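for the writeup, i need someone to sanity check this before i put it in the appendix. the sequnce is what the collaborator sent (i think, or maybe the updated version? ugh). structure was predicted straight from it, no edits. if anything looks off just tell me and ill rerun, i have time this weekend
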Amino acid sequence: MYPESFKKMSSELSLNINIKEPRWDQSTFVGRAKHFFTVTDPRNILLSNEQLEHARQIVHDYRNGFVQPGVTEDELWRAKYVYDSAFHPDTGEKMILIGRMSAQVPMNMTITGCMMTFYSVKPERGSQTSIESLPPFPPVSPKLGSGAGKSWTTPAVIFWQWINQSFNAIVNYTNRSGDAPITGSQLGTAYVSATTGAVATALGLNALTKHVSPLIGRFVPFAAVAAANCINIPLMRQRELKYGIPVTDENGNRIGESANAAKQAITQVVVSRILMAAPGMAIPPFIMNSLEKKAFLKRFPWMSAPIQVGLVGFCLVFATPLCCALFPQNSSMSVSRLEPGLQAQIKENSPGLERVYFNKGL
């Protein structure tokens, strides 16, 4: 099955390296953060198919007790993280490029930066607060285009929220938990319901900008994104809520499927995603408020958009891995919280088992 150039574990690599688990201790936040800084590294999306396949081959060979000559431990771990960044942990399938966690920073910085650059709040007629006295969220130079100084039009809200929620739907599907196949009909229904519900929620919340002060209006887009995440993620992963996700014992032996585990997994992902978006949507507007008072942006107002996208990207470089690390990837729950039928099955087959484990997705 393997060529002669392959050999059994040599002195270069120890047999007890467990590459099924991350390199760092996942029981601590610091260990999880190191793991996700590697997994979400945007440079991984630049790797060619040949490089991904080479990493996959190294990982699969090692798991089968073989190693290519000359491979060091550091190279093995590098291959493992390249593999993890591109292949689904449950199905083993190569993930959609823009749905991988390594694409989160470049994709989100572009979409969020554009959403925020062309968003502004128009005060109520007769209000004493002007755009000049309190810049909108985020501040938009009057030279940026015809949209500057105006509130979002409904088509603009629909377009950007549709783009954002379509991207989120791809990410949520790509990083789902479990290995059960999803039909095209199920996927289409999930996408339409997720994006429609999320966009409708965003439209409703953005309508509030007509009735609130510009200061509060600054945070309405973030509230819209947070609320949309609460709808998009569960709907894109609704099959898990209906049929459950695989749960295992501490040794990875599959025990069954649990919808209760899916609820915990999806809740943790929703919390992580909301907090992930917070820095990029809350910090740049205040920095831009200050920068737009400076001579540089008054002289070069067209620089407002790229600067804001860059600020969002800087926030996401840190927020993405740190928020992914809030909860263990291999999450767990007490057997007593599982469905009664699964509890009975566990008591019969594994009476001493107290906790089960599952991939929460991302």
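The radius of gyration is 24 Å. The longest helix spans residues 259-291.
thx in advance!!
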